[in-house]
Amino acid sequence: MNTDTCLCQIQAMNSLPEDCIAKILSLTTPADVCRSSAVSRIFKSAAYSDNVWNHFLPTHFPAGFTAPTDLTTRKQLFFSLAHNPLLLNDSHLSFWLERKSGNKCYMMAARSLSIAWGDDQRYWHWITLPDTRFGQVAELIMVWWLEITGKINISLLSDDTLYAAYLIFKWNDSPYGFRRLVEASLVLIDTEMTDDVQPSLVSLMQIPGTEEEAPCAVMRRDGWYEVELGHLFERRGDMGEIEMSLKETKGPFDKKGLILYGIEIRPMP
C-alpha cells in the first residue's frame, strides 16, 4: 500500500462523525485506542470519549467497589484500575483490571484462604512484610500435612475468558521438605464434573538434575514466586464457586519455610 493510498484512507476516516469513530475504537483494544489518538484531532477526541472506555470497563464491579472521586473520565478510571489494585472485603481481596483487555483480576490474601492449622502458632506465624498489598502473610513454621484452599465466586470474573489461578509465595532463609512434587487443582464446585477432575503435580522448587517433568514455580518481577494451580474458561451465565488448592498430605516428613502471600486469579495470555 503506497503513501497516497494511506493518506486517502485517513482522510476518509476523518470525515466520519466522531461518535462513529468512537464506536469503531470501542471494538478494538485499549492499546489500539491509545495509539489511534496520534492519527488526527478527531481520533484523539474520540479516543478520550467515555463511551469508548466504558466498553473496556466491567459492566458489573465486585461488591464494595467505589470509584475514586478524583477520577473525572472513564479513561482515567480504567488506567487507575490497571495500575493501582483496590482492596475489598476487609482488605482480604485485591481487584484490578488487565491492561490489555480490561478483564477483571483478583488476588486473595492468605488470610482469606483455608490453611490447615493456619491459626495454630506452633505451625504458622502471621507476619508483616514490606511492599505487600495485604496487612499480613503466612509463614510456615512446620507441618507434615500441607493443605491450602481458596474459593471465589465465578460470577466475579469476566465473561467468556480463560482464567488461571496461581499460588503466590516465597521462601524464608531455611526452607525444607519441598523437593517433592505437590498436588495442585482448580475446579468449579457444585457441578457434575467435580468428581472427574484430577489434581496435577507441580514443583515449588527448581530441583537441579530432576528427571520428573512437572510445571515449576517461576519468579515474578516483584520478587515472589508463582505456580499455576489450574485454569478454567468462564462462560457467560456460569454459576458456582471456583475452588483452588495446593496440598501435600502423603509424605510423612517436615515441611517448613514457605511464606504464603495468597492466590491470584487472572486471564491467561
Describe the structure.
- With 269 residues, this protein is of the alpha+beta class.
- The chain folds into two domains: 3-86, Monooxygenase; 101-267, Galactose-binding domain-like (Jelly Rolls), CATH 2.60.120.
- The chain has helices at 3-14, 18-26, 30-36, 41-47, 50-56, 74-83, and strands at residues 86-88, 93-97, 104-109, 114-115, 124-127, 137-140, 146-153, 161-176, 182-188, 200-202, 218-219, 225-234, 241-248, 256-267.
- It is elongated.
- It starts with a helix and ends with a strand.
Label this structure with key terms.
269 residues, alpha+beta, Jelly Rolls, 9-stranded antiparallel sheet, 6 helices, 33% strand, elongated
In short:
The protein has 269 residues and is of the alpha+beta class. It is built from 6 helices and 14 strands.
